[in-house]
Design brief:
3 helices, alpha+beta, seven-stranded antiparallel sheet, about 40% strand, 20 strands, five-stranded antiparallel sheet
Length: about 280
């Protein structure tokens, strides 16, 4: 049957199909925004920090599924640079995480929250009198474990690394300047386990005696709702893995100033706690 003005109806239908094909081709050739991504950093306290990328300004939904089927969700929003951040407290065990923007979801991320380490307490013995600022430290730890030493709240780069012996004993010789110093020791693979601070006054070639040290460089900070140690380490020190430095510095301050709140082995902090952020 002829169409308008005598054109065959089949010709009009063919032209319509061509137009639709071109529209579909144009839509399909448009660059599609990348899908969201997700990564996870597990804090020893059990708080897992999720981060990733998404189109700037878009809301994302983080879904975490436990081995038993329980599902937890947390919402976040990508900033102007396309980065987002969220956190969830999780019990030890295996998990799968995904992040979604509407129907578009990331690949599944599998991770494990480990059981808290059961380790022997870290102890620093009272040292003998140093000679001209030379200080010999010794103490006890879990046998055969790598250790980190913090001097005035800052980690020392030890070469070779400090490792406790088969009997759990360790020793270390340091050159320290005259004045007040705070020393702490932590397990290298469980940095939330930190010794009580050793407080010393080094007076040149004189003796080392307990003292109330001067405040280490840094700043006081009052914990806010939604804060956790690795988040504060990323914000103030540029690396979430440096949270043991905040714990060590805070405990050193709390040992001489009741205004500060000590941070226990599990690394939990609460809103209202006054802590010390060391200088970057």
């Amino acid at each position: 049957m002829p169409g308008p003005k005598g054109r065959p109806a089949g010709l009009d239908a063919f032209k319509a199909l061509v137009v639709l094909a071109w529209i579909a081709l144009l839509i399909g050739s448009r660059p599609q925004p990348p899908g969201p991504t997700v990564d996870a950093a597990v804090d020893p306290s059990g708080i897992v920090t999720f981060s990733g990328t998404a189109p700037p300004g878009r809301p994302v939904l983080v879904t975490v599924t436990a081995a038993g089927g329980a599902v937890l969700e947390r919402e976040a929003r990508a900033d102007d640079a396309g980065r987002w951040l969220a956190a969830l407290p999780l019990a030890p065990g295996p998990y799968v995480a995904r992040v979604a923007i509407g129907p578009k979801a990331s690949a599944p991320l599998r991770f494990v929250v480990p059981e808290p380490a059961r380790l022997a307490p870290l102890v620093i013995d009272s040292p003998p009198s140093p000679a001209a600022g030379s200080l010999t430290l010794s103490g006890r730890a879990e046998p055969g474990r790598g250790l980190r030493v913090f001097l005035d709240g800052r980690p020392l780069d030890l070469r070779p690394p400090l490792i406790s012996g088969n009997d759990g004993r360790w020793s270390l010789r340091l050159e320290v300047g005259a004045g007040g110093h705070t020393v702490q020791v932590a397990y290298a693979d469980a940095p939330q386990r930190v010794s009580d601070p050793l407080l010393l006054e080094v007076r040149g070639a004189a003796t080392a005696t307990p003292f109330r040290p001067a405040a280490p460089r840094g700043r006081a900070y009052v914990v806010q709702e939604g804060d956790w140690l690795s988040k504060l380490a990323e914000t103030f020190l540029g690396d979430p893995g440096r949270y043991p430095e905040i714990r060590a510095a805070t405990n050193a301050k709390a040992a001489v100033d009741d205004a500060f709140t000590p941070i226990a082995d599990e690394g939990r902090i609460r809103p209202g706690d006054r802590i010390w952020i060391p200088a970057p």
